[in-house]
Structures are given as C-alpha cells and as structure tokens.
Design brief:
Umud Fragment, subunit A; two-stranded antiparallel sheet; DNA binding; LexA-like; 2 domains; 9-stranded mixed sheet
C-alpha cells in the first residue's frame, strides 16, 4: 500500500509537503509512509478515500482504477493562502492580449473575455485557457488555470505548478510546468506531468513572467 500512496501523490501533482498538509501529518512522516518505514493510518486512509476519491480496493490491492471519480486537484492551498468567500476572477485570452508579458505588465488595460466566480478560492489575479498536453492528464488543452502573479522568481515554491512566459529566440513561449531546482547555477528545471515530455533546464534570465497556479477548471464538454 505504501508505494501506492506515492503513486497517488504523483498523479495528483502534489509535492510531499502539500499531500502531508492535506493528511494533517509532517512531510517526514509522509516520506516514511511512501518508503514503507511507517504504515498508513486509518484516518489518513479515510482522507484519501473520502476527500480525494481514491478507490479503496485499488489502495489495498492495486487492482482496478486509482480513483472512483475525478479527484479534487485544486483542494489544497499553501499555508499562507487566504480564501475569499467570493471573488470575480477575470478570464483573459492570451491571443487577445498578445501574450502573457503584456497581460502582466498592464493588466488594468487588458479586457477580460469573462469572469469566473468560485466560492472560497485563494486570491487570484486572473485566469487563462491553456494550450498543449505537457500537463496531461492533470490538465488538458482547453482547461482553465487561475493564477497569482509573482513579482520575484525567488518567491517560488519548489515543486509547485507555475504559469510561465519564456523567451525563446526573441519569441514568447507560454507554458504551465512544475518548477524544481536545477543542478546548473542560474537555471531552474521545468517538469511536465506528461511523461512523454522531457524535463528541461531553463535560464532564469529567460523567464519573462511567472505566476503560481492556484486552481484549475476542467472542461469536460463544450456542448
């Protein structure tokens, strides 16, 4: 069962700190569970099953589907997050704003295509549709990510998911990736959820804009 806890965390795209916070235990305790040095308590098992929709049969035997239903991938928050009872989050079109950098530079002048209303959501600056499959199955093309802009890349949480604008030969490349520490000085490592996309080290100086992904909305159908 212990190794399946790690598989669940990876599938949810959570760091050990985030899942440990959700389970109400320390990061070290979760690490011991994942490595088989400690058992999974009945309380933590119930949280996985009841709150994250993990299939109890799969958790015990590894047979069947990992989840009984679509897991709530946006239910965790950082300890510093303050949720708001209700806020109107502007939804922008990247094409309409000519990219992420102009949007972040002068958001007041950017016209939203709509507004998103979600109760008890952490404070967000905006939302955009994503393109591409690098974060599949966690995110797919056409889903919406809600973000909080960062002014300083030194404020990042290693292992968390970010919306980035990267300069590639003078052109803007907008993507959603996990950010991890790189072994190369002056670089960060961009990691995809999709295993078909290789990790990539990128110079910090090439990151033109960055925002922490606070929540996501899955678009299951457009009809």
């Amino acid at each position: 069962m212990n190794e399946r806890v790690k598989l669940i965390r990876k599938q949810l795209g959570m760091t050990q700190e985030q899942l440990a916070q959700r389970l109400g235990i320390g990061k070290a305790a979760l690490s011991m569970i994942e490595t088989g040095k400690a058992g999974l308590s009945a309380r933590n098992r119930n949280i996985l099953v009841q709150e994250l929709n993990v299939n109890p049969d799969w958790l015990e035997t590894g047979k069947g589907n990992m989840f009984n239903a679509e897991p709530d991938l946006t239910a965790y928050m950082h300890r510093t997050d303050n949720s708001l009872p209700l806020q109107s989050v502007p939804l922008y079109s990247i094409e309409g704003t000519a990219g992420l950098v102009p949007l972040f530079t002068d958001q007041a002048q950017s016209k939203p295509v709509n507004f998103i209303h979600i109760p008890n959501l952490p404070k967000c600056d905006g939302a955009i549709y994503i393109v591409g499959d690098s974060m599949y199955p966690l995110l797919k093309s056409g889903d919406i990510v809600l973000y909080k802009q960062l002014r300083d890349i030194n404020d990042i949480f290693w292992g968390d998911m970010y919306l980035l604008s990267i300069d590639i030969d003078g052109e803007e490349y907008v993507t959603v990736k996990y950010i991890q520490k790189s072994d190369r000085a002056g670089y960060v490592k961009l990691v995809s959820q999709n295993q078909h996309h290789a990790d990539k080290d990128v110079e910090i100086s090439r990151i033109r804009a960055i925002a922490l992904v606070k929540a996501s909305i899955r678009m299951n159908s457009i009809r």
